Amino acid sequence: MICEIVLATSNRHKVKEIESILKDLSIEIVPMTSFASYPIIIEDGKTLEENASKKAREVAIFFRKWAIADDSGIEVDYLNGNPGVHSARYAGEKCSSYENNNKLLEALKNVPQEKRTAKFKTVIAISNPKGKTLLLDGEIFGTIRSCAGTNGFGYDNIFYIPEYERTLAELSFEIKNSISHRSKALQKAKKVIKKLISFSGK
Questions:
Q1: Domain tally for the chain?
Q2: Which residues are catalytically annotated?
Q3: Owning domain of residue 103
């Protein structure tokens, strides 16, 4: 029976978003950092799918509990889909979001706005205690612009949403969680988890 799901992340921003979007599920959602010990996972996959799967599977097996993980990346058309799976480490290992943003803006410095199209993609992995894993994804499309906004994290303040005429970092927490790539993936995950809860209760 599913009574709790461990979040396979140490990113407090992701924890906040995931907990908020999944808050209406009839389970306890527990960040792995709440435990005295947890696995340190090397994200060495070549795709978002590989990284998300690895995180969810290793955490699920370690705790012998259901686990959920995500991996997200920003894909810029002009840069042939980069930084993609390397988004979190675009400016180097242990780099800051500020450094990542600056590197991306520098790479697009002489590129006209109409050619700065991009998408944000999230892959959610759900794993059972034996490591069997299911993948779901979500995407949002926009363009890359100069930094604006103080909400959000990562590339949010340079990812501009034309429909809202705002970057993700200029949107409220509630609006972002209703339209974002992570939200779209998690809404799919929510349906799966509800089915699992219903099945396990029979």
A1: 1
A2: 71
A3: 4-200
